[in-house]
């Protein structure tokens, strides 16, 4: 190694270096995918500390997801070292605002110990608000109301603003519900995600002293993925940057894909107008992808009318062709993907499954892919499915912890009051809440004073009181015990441990998840006693879907096109390339060009994740959300370049122009024949493709199952079928059944209400 080498400036091209070494004043980097924007931001942080003597504690770096923040921390660790890293503020907008409100909350009427409600909690509050304001869920979907409120909050509006200029009946109702919704949140000493941004802005609006304090604290602010900032984030940055305007933003207008969440691409396009002294840097070299991949991405996105033309180049000329694969249906599509992954592995193309990402437009599409991958024994990791934090036992334990921290949290109380069962039902809870309101005390306090609730029987009063005593004990224990010990204490004293460990396998698994949460809590014991619980709860509340993703595991990543932004993989499969799926049906039905353009940008994001290979697949027919549709291939496929694209069809390869009039019947017959052959093979006890783990598990536990290969069973809607195999899972059984006409399905025995068939098959 060259002794003179400079780890901060050497790995940069001249334009990147110019951006990194820019001194004071606003800086804009507007550049395409994979051009090193995130790298510039990271290196700039290191440069500011080392060469411009900016204290690490005076730097704020904001990224889009916790995952991106984590990646940035890892890179900074190498560049600036642990000590400096600990002083930096690197996080998401929401994380930063939460931290700000822990200090300044009281300025806007928020107690410092506030809870952050996740989506499920928010929805529960919203529905209560709707019930109390007589907004019928039959007329107004809670989802619609919630999105009106959320958008308005992100535009820094209040219920009165919405009521003053409603666009329709929905807005009028939403304004009324919103007011009550906010009141309920405050009664519970809680905020929702949007409040974090809104209230942070309000702090600065309200208090010049607070504003000056935070402006002084941060001398330099850096923001990644600026194209996806919304109004509240924009305003927040304006406040923080103040007169110094040491604000460096990076982004790509072609990757703006969150307008449905209030993101406004004008924030980046108007940056030069808002900050007239801005230094503007453009980056044109892409370091991620082959020329083929860049050409494909560009050839799609250039169909957008509303965009600034820019084109990337790479010195990775050529590369593998883009592959378009046609499938018969969604499971066939998944099979094509799985086979291709196996082929790449056999031929040493992909280093392992971890190099592969499978993208889809909506989460629901993952199910078919998961089923097939499991059958193939391909390890996968799903981002955004039922996450660890959504599991019942994890939410219960967290609710207990929340209640320990915040005795006003009635929604946490609702979750655990009768878990484990204490004979405290909804009526008792309602009476408790009413009493707390009447006496203006927290629900936590009301518990121990339950004898004053005369509307409920003595037995319930006693149960409330003893529950209250347990909570009080835990609360005082919380002041002395390290967080993991507090969790031990909590599961023991509340009886939750005994309740979970009921001797079943499922109970054991649930208990293991609680232990996993405890392991997580270990990370916080280095903090001062009083900060452990709050920091733990805060970070968990802010974990977003994308953070489930762990790079270390050798597994393919299954992820939505939205969540994959900013990441990169050697091999990318984009599935469901059909009209109505991608572009999404909502965008098509809206009739708005702007919505289609956003879908097209999403397609650009997807393709540009690929380093070496990109596949786009579509199915001729697809069952999704309970409907089966035959959609034409996506318009985005038609927009691919005519060169460098290989059309592959397990069914048939056609010229793209004639995709519309394929010989449907012939293809269908062939496919059905093959499917039948597969089915026969399985019924003969030879599950051809089902190798690896799946097979091993099956042989190991066969004797414990209720159903066996060859058994005839009856399913409520699929009718009669024959069991191919059955595997014990938790305390249930995963049964693979072949149904004549309907194919082979994997079912959970009790959930699917499988019964033994009395009559013989094939009447
Ligand atoms: P996106 O728009 O997708 O967020 P980006 O512009 O942020 O992309 P980066 O993720 O920073 O791009 O960089 C893309 C890849 O190129 C990364 O693997 C990065 O390490 C590499 N890279 C960036 N700049 C250089 C450079 N000057 N020399 C070599 N590799 C580079
Ligand atoms: Mg980036």
What would you say this structure looks like, in words?
This protein is 46% helix and 14% strand. The protein has 763 residues and is α/β, with parallel strands linked by helices. The protein has 5 domains: 1-25 and 32-51 and 66-88 and 276-287, 3-Layer(aba) Sandwich (Rossmann fold), CATH 3.40.50.300; 114-192, Arc Repressor Mutant, subunit A (Orthogonal Bundle), CATH 1.10.10; 319-386 and 551-662, Rossmann fold (3-Layer(aba) Sandwich), CATH 3.40.50; 389-538, PCRA, domain 4 (Orthogonal Bundle); 692-756, Thrombin, subunit H. A 7-stranded parallel beta sheet has the order 11-12-10-13-14-9-17. Helix 3 (66-87) links the parallel strand 2 (59-63) and strand 3 (89-92). The protein is globular, with a radius of gyration of 28 Å. Magnesium ion binds at residues 37-38, 224, 566.
Short structural description:
It contains 30 helices and 22 strands. It is α/β, with parallel strands linked by helices. The protein has a seven-stranded parallel sheet. The chain has a six-stranded parallel sheet with strand order 3-2-6-7-1-8, sandwiched between helices.
